[in-house]
Amino acid sequence: MKRISDHVFAIPVVDNETDLFESLWPLDEGVNYNSYVVIGSEGAAIVDTVHENFFDEYLEALKEIVDLENVKYVVVNHVEPDHSSSLRLLLEHLQNAKVVISKTGATLFNLPGEVLPVEEGNEISLGDVTLRFLMTPWTHWPETMVTYVPEDGVVFTCDLFGAYGAYPNLGAEDQDGYLLEARRYYVTVLSKYAKFVNSATAKIRSLNPKILAPGHGIVYSGDSLVQILDLYSDWSSGHREGRALILYGSMYGSVYDKVHTLLHLLEAEGVEVDALDLSREDWSYAMTFVLGADVVVIAYPTYDADVFPPVKYFLQTVLDKGLLDGRALYVIEAHGWSSSEQKIRALLDGKDIRRVLSFSQKQPLKISDLENLAAEIAAILGGSEQT
Ligand code: FEO
């Protein structure tokens, strides 16, 4: 438990048991579920809860902060179970509390207890402190909203500005490591909804908040608050870092050889470039690289007359999340008896495919092909003049 402003307390619960968030994304260092309590002169409100597996420790922490008889409201900014699965258990301990949720949420979900739907700008007074509700749909799900406490300048943002990792004190000692976990959370959970995330970030920025209090990760204030708002504005609006990225798979080494030749040629051209083996690289980390890439080279061996599976399914995932939009794409395709060029063109349909280089034992790639490719990529990135 930690007091974060005059009227607001935080209860960070650390989950070190779950191995994969959403059964997809590795939690090597765990994850926080942050719940908050707003205490006013005429009652208290709880804002978001925690995963039900941690309800007992959560309830003990809650009782240290507030007399449960004084809790008038439980605000559900987001219904996903990591934030709301404790609600039913919690209401068994609250005699006088209504459940506050967006009107969209009240339409889509059956929640326990007496439900009070709210719309944009609705307010609830707790005496000397106010809860104001701002609709931020699709900042993961359609029902999502944020709650603002104007007297303290606190915004409860749930998934927005969240991060993987365990932060029992709601602060980060390793700033670079934290930002990677925030970036990984953004690309895995929120990037599909970038347009909505961008407008929600602008709406929250316009409040000129003093504190951002998300459902995962740390509580932000001062420089860290400015930094996460700037990063979210950037990530959700065509972010680029002037880098090239090679995403590859290789079965017998011929693609690997081309990738490493190209990697060295690009470095010689002054290009900032990374190469990731999708047979081995965790997808969530690979997605953080895609976010920053201007140019993506996709290199793989044809498999069953189709795109190599680790490459194909990773591409489908990042395409679904919009992470390849606006990137210049190049393909290097190796095959034995049947090219998969039409398959990769169909997979990337509508995207900015600049060139597909196909090669086989009978039609090998020449070093000049890769030199020309490196020069073309360097010209896009401004690493050297095009010849
Ligand atoms: Fe952290 Fe969309 O739940």
Would you kindly provide a brief summary of this structure?
The chain is α/β, with parallel strands linked by helices. The protein has helices spanning 55-65, 81-84, 87-91, 103-108, 175-190, 194-206, 222-235, 254-268, 283-292, 309-320, 341-347, 367-381, and strands at 2-3, 8-15, 20-21, 25-26, 31-40, 43-47, 71-76, 98-102, 115-118, 123-125, 130-135, 145-149, 154-158, 211-214, 220-221, 243-248, 273-277, 293-301, 328-335, 353-360.
Number of helices: 12
* End-to-end C-alpha gap: 62 Å
Task: Write down how many β-strands occur, each being a DSSP E stretch of 2 or more residues.
Answer: 20
What summary fits the major beta sheet? 7 strands, mixed
Low-confidence stretches: none
Oligomer: single chain
Cα-based radius of gyration, to the nearest Å: 24 Å
Question: What's the pLDDT, averaged over the residues?
Answer: 97
Strand order of the largest sheet: 1-2-5-6-7-8-9
The coarse silhouette is: elongated
Bound small-molecule species:
MU-OXO-diiron
Structural class: alpha/beta
Strand content: 25-35%
What is the helical fraction, as a range of percent? 25-40%
Provide a descriptive summary of the structure in words.
- The protein is an alpha/beta fold and 387 residues long.
- It has twelve helices and 20 strands.
- The strands form four sheets. The protein has a seven-stranded mixed beta sheet. Strands 10-11-12-13-14-15 form a six-stranded mixed beta sheet.
- Helix 5 crosses helix 9 (283-292).
- MU-OXO-diiron binds next to helix 2.
